[in-house]
Amino acid sequence: MDRIREVLTYLRDKNDYVSGDYMSGTIGISRTAVWKYINHLERLGYRIEKLKGKGYRLAEAPDKLYPWEVERHVTATVLGKKIIYKDNLDSTNALAFRLALSGEPEGTCVIAETQKSGKGRLGRKWFSPAGKNLYMSVLLRPRIPPSAVYPITFLSSLAVYDTIETLVRVQPTLKWPNDVLIAGKKVCGTLLELSTEADMVRFVIVGIGLNINMKEDETEEEIRQKATSFFMEARKSFERTAVCGILLDNLERYYRIFREKGTDEICSIWERRANIKGKYLEITQMGESYRGISEGIDRDGAMLLVADGTVQKIIAGDVSF
Ligand code: BT5
């Protein structure tokens, strides 16, 4: 793959015709090899114009989340250093989990164009139409106790929040515990899965589903009224590789804050951004409903609700305002 990347880099940097001779000389491969790599790039969806006597010109790159395309937009040093790309998967979280068990390092990402069994929390489904959105799982190996894991969801939501502000230029909202909304509709959800020892986390998989170019008629009937995407909000398409790169940079920035300053800092950034304190909420958890005024987020990420003068701590659930 490295050679293909090299050929692609030459075509891209030149932004004009590059001769096969030139590439063969500078890369140090035969002209036949250059020709083979060009064919391979075409099979991957790149449109390459060929002109006798002048060589090859990159006319168009496909809308695919190929690792080498995402990497062009990443400046993070740990997250996204290794990207595993699949056209089709059951769930990026499931593969990332297996890879983590086999010792993959922190920062490894799994990205898929579509998921057959994309997972939400509590056995729910994540709709994953092909080639439109981002389905990504990031492997983290923080040295923390299991009780400090929950706020890692907030890192993801905050990173998505910033990415939306920068690219879509609208102000999203954060909904406890794991949603990012635009104009009241869900644009992103995060699913954490983890493996722990008795008092130490072995690894955490941060699964992020972010709707980017999905249109209304590509959305499942079941979520049509409550889901949105960058496209639906801005009425234009976004370069998914750039969205993914910016998101990884933002995620690394928050992960650094988390590692240096701990859950307190992350919870309070999330709490301020979500503007949750003093709001009247109803939270459903395992079929039970809790109502009250939010006192904010506890340092372990739980929601504090005040009702009838007593504070209740709610670990997980679904909020309605
Ligand atoms: C979540 O669960 O929001 C976590 C979603 C995490 C998905 C990512 S994709 C990459 C990685 N690999 C996986 O297999 N999963 C992760 P929850 O809070 O339970 O919300 C699920 C609910 O969101 C569903 O019941 C639907 O109502 C709604 N939903 C499903 N697909 C959606 C979509 N594409 N956009 C917006 N809402 C959706």
From TrEMBL:
Residues annotated as binding biotin: S91, T92, N93, Q115, K186
Gene Ontology terms for molecular function: ATP binding; biotin--[biotin carboxyl-carrier protein] ligase activity; DNA binding
EC number of the protein: 6.3.4.15
Alphabetic keyword roster: ATP-binding, Biotin, DNA-binding, Ligase, Nucleotide-binding, Repressor, Transcription, Transcription regulation
DNA-binding feature ranges: 20-39
BPL/LPL catalytic domain location: 59-259
Gene Ontology cellular component annotations, sorted alphabetically: cytoplasm
Family (UniProt): Belongs to the biotin--protein ligase family.
Name the record gives this protein: Bifunctional ligase/repressor BirA
Biological source species: Syntrophorhabdus aromaticivorans
